[in-house]
Amino acid sequence: MKEKRLRSLVALGVLPLALVACGAATNDTPKAGAGAPGVPGAAGSGTSVGAAGSGAGTAVGTAGTGAGVEPLPPPETCVPGVPVTTQIPMLLNRQYASVVRDLLGVSDVGGAQVTDLLVGDTSQMTAPAWKVYQDVAEKIAKQVMAGPNKAKFISCDPAAADCLKTTITQFGRKAFRRPLTDEEVASFMTLNSATPAGTPAEVAEAILNAFLVSPSFLLIPELNTAEPEGTAFKLSQQEVATRLSFLLWGSVPDDALNAAADANQLSSKEQILTQATRMIAVREKTGPFIATFHDDWAQMNNSSAHWFKGKHDTTVYPDYKDASLAANQKELDAFFQEVAYSGGSFKDLLTSNVAFVNKDNAVYYGLDPSKYTDVLTKVTLDSTTNPRPGFLTRAGFLSSYAGYDATSPILRGSFMAIWLLSINVPAPDPAFAMKKLDGVFKTNRAYVEALTQSDQPCKGCHEVFNPLGMVMENYDGVGKWQTTDPKGGAIDTKATVNFGNGVAPKEISSPVDLMNAIAAAPKAQELYAQAWVSFATGRQPNGNDKCTVDTLKTKLAAGNYTILSLLGDLTQADSFRLRVRGSL
What does the buried/exposed string (b/e) look like for 329-350 if buried means 16 or more CB atoms within 10 Å of the residue's CB? Predict the structure, then answer.
């Protein structure tokens, strides 16, 4: 009976069969099979990000460095204008999950996380993916109507006069991120007259099911052509609200934002910033988005990277335990949010001594695990005897970028060189990837220097990587502070560090000096700005967006430019409220 009702909706146009093949659209018209790969973490444009920090570039990473996929070089020159965008991107999986959570109170279905039930992020709807969306929608509709969150969808008696029509109108406004047309309301209402007839409760469930598989729910259309501005078109008020909500919250607009859109109060940059500022202040919603961005920027979402994969030898590191992997990962997400919401800047990401510890990771910071529970607790680490400047000195990074039974200056240094400083280095000869040396060495640094500084093809790369990593040798393979190497020698962290990009090499003697130098590096600031722009727009680096990157870079260089201010400024570019049609 339900399948027949859904088929009737297809015939009525509420669920067009074209959705099965629709992809990223250009020129305001869906094209079967068109589209570019989706971007995990992006705001919803559907194009592939190749920026530093995105984890979606194309160049193969340096063998043996753990760098994974290297970033594409960003454009060098700002080209004024608005870039061409995708007009009908699909919801990313994380967005779909957030939407059904916010609209319907559904965070899991049958004990499984919503994101785990969906196919991988894609910009085009294949027949198998369409079947998955149908199955998930049916399960969600059934769960909502039979559970405590039923009132989130329908708060009246389905058998009462006008109840279904009111529900369609009110819920549809939220689900479609715009008011429904009379034709759409009428189409949904046909479910109440389909044969064989269902009970009022069954009809209500079928209506919810239909909403969850509608193109206006699964896609994020930006099709307004009523207000041209130069060669571009202004987004409608509802389209601006949707961009804001998916950028900052990864979900649908709330009532206040919908009201602003319906009252035509999202026309100017100032009006947009007013709403953005209000929304950014809602930490429980924007905080996870900030953490997700920094996970991408730091390559934690890059499957080719080393994050949280390696275990360690307990005979060398007796304090190590596998449970700390989860604690270390959660700590970094908490750290990134805390830096942002405590008024922190890009520099603070690299210099803050705030940490989040529990019984599983406290020992790595010289703290007593017995004083902590499973819950992460915010602490301020002692910066004198055990310096901990920024996320690169947290146990998550240090233990991930280390060997099984030793530190790895190569892994740590290559991460900083490639992802934070964008230093161009050639790929090494794979014949040397597993090379080892015999002999007696008093420190791991001495061993690595002997291994990589001989006249062989790896030398050029390691002259860049090694010094950066050597400065971090006070942190052992699981992240604990050490002054004596396990091999018996004293730790030496002094090195002449090459920061690339025309910056003269500097003598660095401590992790604090190194983090301050990276934070002040123009290229590091530029890559951070570029990563934010690419992540927020879902676009590959391009000349038009380079203008926005340059603006953010200038503010970053001036100092004391907070992460939350940067997030608000992302909504002030002309490209946020305008779109240009064209082929992608």
Answer: bbbbbbbbbbbbbeebbbbbbb
User: How far is CA 91 from its chain centroid?
Assistant: 14
Burial grade of 228 (CB within 10 A; 0-12, 13-18, 19 or more): exposed
The beta-strand segments (E) located in 238-323 are none
3-class SS shares of the chain: helix, strand, coil, % to 5: 45, 10, 45
Tell the residue number behind the tokens 């004198």, with chain if given: 384
pTM of the model: 0.86
- Helix (H), strand (E) at residue 529: helix 522-537
* pLDDT in single tens digits along all 584 residues of the chain: 445 454 444 434 444 433 333 333 334 433 322 222 222 233 333 322 222 232 222 222 233 334 445 566 678 899 999 999 888 889 999 999 999 999 999 999 999 999 999 988 776 788 999 999 999 999 999 999 999 999 999 999 999 999 999 999 999 999 999 999 999 999 999 999 888 889 999 999 999 999 999 999 999 999 999 999 999 999 999 999 999 999 999 999 999 999 999 999 999 999 999 999 999 999 999 999 999 999 999 999 998 999 999 999 999 999 999 999 999 999 999 999 999 999 999 999 999 999 999 999 999 999 999 999 999 999 999 888 889 999 999 999 999 999 999 999 999 999 999 999 999 776 666 666 667 788 889 999 999 888 887 656 667 778 888 999 999 999 999 999 999 999 999 999 999 999 988 888 999 999 999 999 999 999 999 999 999 999 999 889 999 999 999 999 999 999 999 999 999 999 999 999 999 987 66
Q: Measure the CA–CA gap between 502 and 454, rounded to whole angstroms.
A: 26
Q: Cite the DSSP H helix spans in 479-542.
A: 511-520, 522-537
Q: How far apart are the C-alpha atoms of 564 and 453, rounded to whole Å?
A: 43
Measure Cα distances from 149 to 73, 100, 153 in Å: 48, 11, 8
Q: CA distances (Å), 97 to each of 23, 107, 295, 341, 490, in order?
A: 20, 7, 18, 24, 51
- How far from the centroid of its chain's Cα atoms is residue 315's Cα? 37
Torsion of CA 114, 155, 159, 195, to 10 degrees: -20
Q: What is the DSSP letter of 501?
A: T
Write down the domain spans for the chain: 2-21+90-218, 311-520
Start-to-end Cα distance in the chain:
42
Asked if 106 and 144 count as a contact pair (C-beta separation under 8 A), the reply is: yes
- Four-point Cα dihedral 548, 554, 560, 563, nearest 10: 20
Cβ atoms of 38 and 123 closer than 8 Å: yes
How many residues would you count in the chain? 584
